[in-house]
Amino acid sequence: MDFWGVFIPLSLLFCMWTDAAGEISWTYNGLVGQSEWSEYFPDCSGTSQSPVDVVTTQTKYDPSLTSVTPLGYNQHGSMPFSLYNNGHTAVIELPEWMGLGGLPWLFTAVQLHLHWGSGGPSPGGSEHTINGQSADAELHVVHYNSELYPNMSVAMTQRDGLAVLGILIKTGEDTNEAYGNIINYLSRVRHADQRVFIPAFDVQTLLPNDLEHYYRYNGSLTTPPCYQSVMWTVFHKRVQISHAQLLKLETILYSSKAEDPDRMLLQDNYRATHSLNHRVILTSFSPESGKKLTSGEVTAIVIGVMCGCVGLAVIVRFIIKMIRFFTVLRSETVVANSSTSSWDVLPNIRPAPMLRTKESKEAKENRQDVALNSTCEGASKDEPLASLQTEP
Predict the structure, then answer these.
(1) Of 53, 124, 236, 372, which one has the fewest beta carbons inside 10 Å?
(2) What is the mean pLDDT of the chain?
(3) 344: left (phi > 0), else alpha (psi -120 to 50), else beta?
(4) Are 208 and 280 in contact, with CB atoms under 8 Å apart?
């Protein structure tokens, strides 16, 4: 009696962990949460697991890494996309003509899906982190190596079978219309196993504008069975969605089915980061080229440059004035030292001598007449005195 009392509940619990195909039903938290994945999926305990924390000071610049080239992303055609809630995330299946270039082999697109948090006080949502900092959400675009393998099922078990793009998502004030093509239809797949067709759109608009700056490393699937078969490309630049879009993403989906009596919100569907275990993360850019300045930093640089220019102009003006001052002082000193007397320095104030000219004849005669008259007058005045002197 005791045996059956223990066996039956355990059997029912095990059935809850498995789906109709006999696969174990895993979760991010709970009895088969990510801390227990390795017990049921051996690869989840491998040494090349994903996601990882990208420590930028420990990355290695590889100049051979060229720009990632989406193929056919903007050629969505007239057929609608399939949006599916698989109980772990929202998935959009992509047409086979979409692919990825710029890699050692040709990779064909399979699907894209999202990871997010719960809007709680602790930050989180993205799977990959940069220098320990997580983003609000993360988009993955999954491709398989169609040059070497016939399909996704075979490729995912091979070391070089998959290539996944990782796009970190942040929030802001502006609505992202591209991500609205997904988020606006999530209400139609609120419960697990629900599927709906949505209008096709340009998948490339989901990617950042800068496809040249990224991190590259070899890792794994971030969900069971955790096959270590992924060539990861995590873009350096983030894309932005609005706060309202993130809130809708975090609160609208359920991991439970519609017929389940207890509804469970689909939140915190991201895996914790794992150790690199001697793996090296390559970068397609040097640290200097990858650094992006904020608006405040740009403003500070502009103000600093302007102040520097003004200061330089003041210094140049001061130097010029000092050069002129010492030049004048030197010239005056040279003049003073070369002088022999004060007369050589002071101006000559003596009047210039007047030139003699010949007197006219008339003027000469008049002068002679004046002189003669003067003589005659003097003689007449002397006559009485002479007569007085001659009398006895």
Answers:
(1) 372
(2) 83
(3) alpha
(4) no
Q: Check residue 387 and give its pLDDT.
A: 42
Q: In Å, what is the CA distance from 163 to each residue of 40, 65, 68, 222?
A: 25, 15, 11, 13
- The alpha carbon dihedral of 72, 73, 79, 82 has a sign of positive
Res. 375: pLDDT tops 70: no
**Cα end-to-end span (Å), the chain:** 208
Evaluate the omega torsion of the peptide bond into residue 351 and state whether it is cis, within 30 degrees of 0: no
- Tokens standing for 330? 């030197």
Radius of gyration of the chain (CA): 51
Q: Can you read off the two tokens belonging to residue 61? A: 């610049």
d(CA 176, CA 168): 14
pTM of the model: 0.71
Distance CA 27, CA 31 (A): 8
Q: Is 182 exposed, middle or buried (0-12, 13-18, 19+ CB in 10 A)?
A: buried
To the nearest 10°, report the CA torsion of 51, 54, 59, 64. Answer: 60
Higher pLDDT, 203 or 14: 203
pLDDT confidence tier of residue 336, bands split at 50, 70 and 90: low
Question: Is there a contact between 233 and 215 (Cβ–Cβ < 8 Å)?
Answer: yes
* pLDDT, average across residues 60-69: 95
Is residue 196 a contact partner of residue 83, using CB atoms and an 8 Å limit?
Answer: yes
* Catalytic (active-site) positions: 88
CA angle, 193 as apex, 191 and 198 as ends, to 5°? Answer: 85
Q: Which residue has the tokens 């995912």?
A: 156
Q: Which residue spans within 19-104 are E strands per DSSP? A: 53-54, 60-61, 69-71, 81-85, 90-93, 99-101
d(CA 184, CA 83): 11
Indicate the pLDDT class of residue 222, thresholds 50, 70 and 90.
very high
What pLDDT does 324 receive? Answer: 79
- Strands 230-235 and 162-172, sheet pairing: parallel
User: What does the alpha-carbon distance between residue 126 and residue 136 come to, in Å, rounded to a whole number?
Assistant: 6
Among candidates 210, 206, 225, which has minimal Cα distance to 109? 206
Per-residue DSSP letter, 347: P
> For the purposes of burial, counting CB atoms within 10 Å of the CB of 318, is it exposed (0-12), middle (13-18) or buried (19 or more)?
exposed
Residue with tokens 């059935």: 15
Residue 349 pLDDT > 60, yes or no? no
